[in-house]
């Protein structure tokens, strides 16, 4: 189970992968990528866009000063925004 947030975050990438993110004024370092998958935005229609905007999901183990946790980060290719989608227990 987990807590759903959907809040904007700032992400630093290296070779297309998240390596660090800032949430609630704390810097979290990604220690391990647990999973990665791609979905198409639910509001996409072929009549309005040439290519479907993708949502790239990253489930990562990351931590700041304390012990690491598991976080789900989401990157929306249509808007370029990153969101903290979920914090897993």
From TrEMBL:
Name the record gives this protein: DUF6504 family protein
Domain (DUF6504) ranges: 13-89
InterPro entries: DUF6504
Superkingdom of the source species: Bacteria
Organism of provenance: Streptomonospora mangrovi
